[in-house]
Amino acid sequence: MPGCFKKTIFSIASAFSLVSFLLIVVAMATQKWMTGKILCQTGVDLVNASDPELVKFIGDIYYGLFQGGKVRQCGLGKRVFTFTVFPHMVKSLNTSLHVAIILFLCSAISFALISFGFCVHNIRKVPYRTIKGPAGICLWNLIAGLFIVFAVTSFIAAVQLHQLTERIANFRENVFRIVILEEKYEDSFWLCVASGTTHAVNMLLMAASAIRLPKFKTKTEEANVTPEDIMY
Question: Is 155:31 a contact under the CB 8 Å cutoff?
């Protein structure tokens, strides 16, 4: 059986692995990866709007991995639109990159669960194989963390290099042209970043589990038996 110190380490690591799993699931389920401000450029050009009047042409947009919505203002009041990425926007986006983000996150979920299982196994007994011990857990956390890094960087690349927000904002806009004024990464995105952090912490915990604490032995005093003690 593992000692109390290692049991504590593996218990904390299992909790972090479970938290990582939950964070990714919540991030994929919620649709607030990105928000922004959008400007109806066509409406501005039509009426030659000045700075004080631009407020009437500024709307909002939000989206996640699977769906989103926008509030467009082109001088005729607010128009609310909702959309789904699949299957409607497949031709408008960089589909391969978008699918890769989802696959990276699904892979991270799998390895987070594997890490959780091996941590629980190490709490119960000392493994005989290295792959089942701290080295294996460190490997699974490294792989899960890399998948999260790939997902996060791919999403940033889609936003910054492939103009993801602009493509979504102009989806099915045949008359009006929408310009992006502001973009902001939201909670769902940062949940993925936090999930990657938990795996980094787990790797530090596995390194700490290799520390051997000194064992304190109490010396028992030897009893000195004298002839007087025997008489009594």
Answer: no
Topology at the third CATH level for domain 4-210 = Butyryl-CoA Dehydrogenase, subunit A; domain 3 (1.20.140)
CA–CA gap between residue 46 and residue 224 (Å, rounded): 108
Q: How far apart are CA 103 and CA 121, in angstroms?
A: 27
The total of other beta-carbon atoms located within 10 Å of residue 22's CB is 15
Q: How many residues does the chain have?
A: 232
Which three-class secondary structure string do you get for 57-110? HEEEEEECCCEEEEEEECCCCEEEEEEECCCCCCCCCCHHHHHHHHHHHHHHHH
Residue 107's contacts (CB-CB under 8 Å, 6 or more residues apart) are: 144, 147
Q: What is the pTM of this model?
A: 0.83
111 close to 147: Cβ distance less than 8 angstroms: yes
Each residue's pLDDT tens digit, 134-178: 888 999 999 999 999 999 999 999 999 999 999 999 988 888 899
Tokens of 227: 């002839």
Q: Supply 194's token pair.
A: 């936090």
